Amino acid sequence: MSLQTSTQPTSPVQQALREALIAGVVSFGLFFFFIGLKTDQNIRNELVLVTRWGLLTTVVVLTMIVRFLYVAYAVPFLARQKIADAVTGLLPDSTGTKFFRVPFFIGSLALAAVLIVFGSAIVAWTGPNIGAYVTLIRAFAIIYAVAAVMFYGRAFIGRNFASIGIVSLILYPILVVVILALLAWSNGSANITSAAFQGSLKWVDNFGIQILIYVMLAWGLNIVVGLAGLLDLGYVAFYAVGAYSYALLGTHFGLSFWILLPMAGILAAFWGVMLGFPVLRLRGDYLAIVTLAFGEIIRLVLINWREVTNGSAGISGVPKVSFFGWFTFNVSDPNYISKVFDIPQSGAYYKIFLYYLILALALLTAFVTIRLRRMPVGRAWEALREDEIACRSLGINTTSTKLTAFAIGAMFGGFAGSFFAARQGFVSPESFVFLESAIILAIVVLGGMGSLVGIAIAALVMVGGTEALREMEFLKSFFGQDFTPELYRMLLFGMAMVVVMLWKPRGFASSREPTAFLRERKAVSGSFTKEGHG
Amino acid sequence: MSDAATMSTPILKLEHLSMKFGGLVAIGDLSFEAKRGEITALIGPNGAGKTTVFNCITGFYKPTEGMITMTRRDGSTHLLERLPNHEIPAKAKVARTFQNIRLFSGMTLLENLLVAQHNKLMLASGYTILGLLGFSGYKRAAAESVELAKYWLEKADLIDRADDPAGDLPYGAQRRLEIARAMCTEPELLCLDEPAAGLNPRESLALNELLMGIRADTGTSILLIEHDMSVVMQISDHVVVLEYGRKISDGDPSSVRSDPKVIAAYLGVDDDEVGDVLVEVGDEQVIEELDVAPDPEHGPGASSSMFAGSVSDTIEHSDEDERIAVSKGASKAAQVEAKEARSAEAPDTTSKGAK
Amino acid sequence: MQYFIQQLINGLTLGSIYGLIAIGYTMVYGIIGMINFAHGDIFMIGAFIALIVFLALTSLFYSVPVVIALLIMMIVAMLMTSLYNWTIEKVAYRPLRGSFRLAPLITAIGMSIALSNFVQVTQGPRNKPIPQMVSRVYEIGGISISLKQIIIVVVTAVLLTLFWYLVNKTSLGRAQRACEQDRKMAALLGIDVDRTISITFIMGASLAAVAGTLFLMYYGVVSFSDGFVPGVKAFTAAVLGGIGSLPGAVLGGLLIGFIESMWSAYFSIDYKDVAAFSILAIVLIFLPSGILGRPEVEKV
């Protein structure tokens, strides 16, 4: 790219123009068939081609503009930044202080407050189309204010990241309900509590629980991939084993969740060992394909073993979790929560309960991982990732070390699976496709292998980001009413995986926390850690 | 020193060891002993099969034939060729280092040494379960293991860098750390694969001190492969010389140093000096050959050695009798041997090296 | 016996397609040591381009001879799919070369997700059926061989011969083999490594595009999600044959094809994939580097 063909030095703008032209040609070639032409069915159900030259032109021109801006401005900026801050790779402080200023911060707070209080009035006055922009501006104002607080408190946050994270996770459902109650009050709605609880469903379930499930799964897989360095592309199999264990044993024998949760974990761990045995001798990509095949085998068996699993139709009516038998969340039960506490009926209680349940399970995973890392077996995992031959020369039984990694990783997958079944009330093989394994693995790698905090951030960004796309209703006013942002979810997810990896090849948190120290705990730079080859 | 050596018992005994890779015979019928409390050096030219011997002893290769017996201090014996390789450090108490250093580079020095105490800690933590529940027995064992790690870090002069990643150390320090890590398994026999390779003279001296210290303080026997003759001659009590997978000499350093076979094969003698050695011991046939200019058709051409022969006839592997048939030009030691056999018939020939 | 031979022919057809895709996996693995997870979707892209070209041909001209139509479809698909793979390599893999080993794997998975969803978004999620292009069936001694199957096997054989010649007899092939052995050394000897790798991706994509065209001709339908299953099967084939080995990829492809058709014929069609995957696992237990793969020597 930096090759100069002529003897005359080219300016960045000239070079950017050339690059943009090349990008235009390439993108025309790439998109001609897929965007320029569309296969569609006509009335007689035959395929016909529909042309979309306008859209093709737009996309190609956009590509050229983006490429131009990237080469002309972003690359020099990034190069300068690299010199300014070669160590952390973070934005230099000067950029941050330019962007986050106190007057702006106060302004954004005021704007957010005004739009929260008078939002509904403005929407009622302007109509839904412009109203969508109001919501958007409000969201941006809030995001800006939060980001500014984080920027100025970054030293404090950096020091106490884990505790701040846990506290905010614990407070999250409460905050959601309180904020929604405030909104309901500002809208002048009649029944504030029920509106708040009803509205919290989406935030607690779609965001909170969904993200925490992925956090837990990624933390579980982290033991296998991040610590032991064994590439596992079939992790979703253990998730499936856990989910089906709970669904089958729960529906057929009516056993309680609290008995089946450990059982699902043990069953999944057993399957982890079953997978572990044949793959012990395999390395790298051979290991990857066998684990992938294992995941597919489990899924195909679930689809085809119809007598037991009910095939692709899945199992419905999976029992809900009760609060240790004290009260339940089934409306028909005599000890239903609203009867016990004499409060109005709402599905939100169950979701909030589930939120705390998955939070507890995820924290258990984190706790066990942290403890295990300081134990001989955890150190042996990491040593295995660094150098298997050296491990054997020190008398470490690599067979059992690998098997424990598979088993414990699988066990947490099983826990998460049984939770998933209880949350959905329905399981089917559809939920356990390879894509899920890939997403979980991507979260582990994007987070920075081995780092719990990094993985949690990666899950938040990737899963939360794609979930947020569902909320982008305002885009309809841009692209027309038949625009469904959800359609672009996985496309953007895939592209985000590529972009984040290119930006940070070692993940968000690339340094490793040592498990023991004599004088001071110094983080080990990611450039020294290996990724294992098994 | 030699008195003590003869009195002490063998700690490691190799008998008729051979190792083949397909048709290639890397070790052919090798037998030697390492005595307890001694430093035994295994030397020989590149490709002599020294590292293969190490890999057989430490279980990374299973020898094709032969027996490797390790006798521990408590009198128990272990047949190393039968143990799976992770049990060799654990049960037979043999530790090793590697020619191309194998550290856990992303872990700190302290962690490296703690990993080496894995089996002890595993037991103390009740195979993780008791430790996970926070039993005090594990905490005590963990503290002890840190103490042991500290001891060896001090010995290896690495205590100041205990909390740095191992990959960050300079080369010489990595070598010392690898030895310290091996010592944390509390071995009775320490096998070092070229510990002085790539070290500068000062580091080499520090290494000698470390090794002498290990032997003096812990009584650990040492078996080492080394090319650096200053290390070999200074610290070893016993030297075994290999060439093409065979033992060509065995004895204390001074006797090995003056063994003409060794001189011819290896010891600091350049290829064109081999002739001088042979002239010295009086091999007429060779002298005659030396007078003749090398035949470019049959000779190795660009090779520095006219004795090396062309690549194809350097080593022949015959599957039937499972031993190496070395062509006339290849093994310098073989030339000397042949000459000695002849000179045995003529008793008046002076033999400088033997005895 | 007739039934068996019939299944053998079906397996050969299927195996040819898998083999063509598997070569792309194995070449990329050989040269840069990464699993190009997006390769299955490259195959799907190839099939889609062939589909669009077919539709364009039928709408532009009143009638086109089938042979010419197939040739045009194949050539356009090869060109355009190569452009896709070339771009992907340049954008998503090249910047990560020499870094963390899992990073390109993740970008490859990301690319795979992005490609299939890109096609879903731009072309719609439905299956895309086309009328049958080739319908003749020959009956020989109670065994029916369709012309489609003959075309597939012949095209595959011709391409493989061509390909074998390219890799073994040309300077390009020599450069590829040199890069496979030691990239750094090859660069020092004046081989343009980046270009060689790009060409490898282009070659893999061309073969995948041919496989896609044949797939479309054989089954007469394609959808955006059709990349995954053949992709995984072909990857399985590459690993079974010994990843990095070109004859191994073809052999593995044929084996997977045979296993599938035999299993569906004699046991149950539901479990044919389970059988293929299980046999992979069993073979790898005994031959950890595949059937024709070089055994990995543990260097101590």
Compile the SSE list and pairings.
The complex is a heterotrimer of chains A (534), B (355) and C (300).
Chain A: H1 12-36, E1 37-41, E2 47-51, H2 53-84, H3 93-99, H4 102-126, H5 128-152, H6 154-159, H7 161-187, H8 192-227, H9 236-253, H10 257-279, H11 284-304, H12 306-309, E3 315-316, H13 337-341, H14 348-373, H15 376-386, H16 388-393, H17 398-424, E4 426-427, H18 434-447, H19 452-469, H20 475-479, H21 489-503
Antiparallel strand pairs in A: 1-2, 3-4
Helix pairs in contact in A: 1-2, 4-5, 7-8, 8-14, 8-15, 8-17, 8-18, 8-19, 9-10, 9-11, 9-17, 10-17, 14-15, 14-17, 15-17, 18-19, 19-21
Chain B: H1 2-7, E1 10-21, E2 24-35, E3 39-43, H2 50-57, E4 65-71, E5 77-79, H3 87-91, E6 94-96, H4 109-115, H5 118-124, H6 129-132, H7 136-155, H8 171-183, E7 189-193, H9 201-218, E8 221-225, H10 229-235, E9 238-243, E10 246-251, H11 253-257, H12 260-265, H13 271-281, H14 284-291, E11 315-317, E12 324-326, H15 332-345
Parallel strand pairs in B: 3-8, 3-9, 6-7, 7-8
Antiparallel strand pairs in B: 1-2, 1-4, 4-5, 9-10, 11-12
Chain C: H1 2-32, H2 39-60, H3 66-93, H4 102-123, E1 128-129, E2 137-140, E3 143-146, H5 147-169, H6 171-181, H7 183-188, H8 193-219, E4 221-222, H9 228-241, H10 246-266, H11 272-286
Antiparallel strand pairs in C: 1-4, 2-3
Helix pairs in contact in C: 1-5, 1-8, 1-9, 1-10, 2-3, 2-4, 2-8, 2-9, 3-8, 5-6, 5-8, 6-8, 9-10, 9-11, 10-11
InterPro entries (chain C): ABC_transp_permease, BCAA_transport_permease
Membrane topology (chain C): Multi-pass membrane protein
Subcellular location (chain C): Cell membrane
Helix content of chain B: 25-40%
Low-confidence stretches of chain B: 1-7, 281-329, 348-355
Query: How do the SSEs of chain B run, as a string of H and E?
Result: HEEEHEEHEHHHHHEHEHEEHHHHEEH
CATH C-level class of the largest domain in chain B is Alpha Beta
Order of SSEs of chain C, N→C?
Answer: HHHHEEEHHHHEHHH
Tally the beta strands of chain B.
Answer: 12
CATH architecture label of the largest domain in chain B: 3-Layer(aba) Sandwich
* Biggest sheet features of chain C: 2 strands, antiparallel
- Spans of chain C with pLDDT under 50 lasting ≥5 residues? none
Number of domains of chain B: 3
Whole-number mean pLDDT of chain C: 88
Number of strands of chain C: 4
As a whole number of angstroms, the C-alpha radius of gyration of chain C is 19 Å
Strand proportion of chain C: under 5%
Mean pLDDT of chain B: 73
Number of helices of chain B: 15
Give me the number of helical elements of chain C. 11
Q: How big is the Rg of chain B?
A: 23 Å
Shape of chain C: globular
The CATH homologous superfamily name of the largest domain in chain B equals P-loop containing nucleotide triphosphate hydrolases
> Could you give the order of strands across the largest sheet of chain C?
1-4
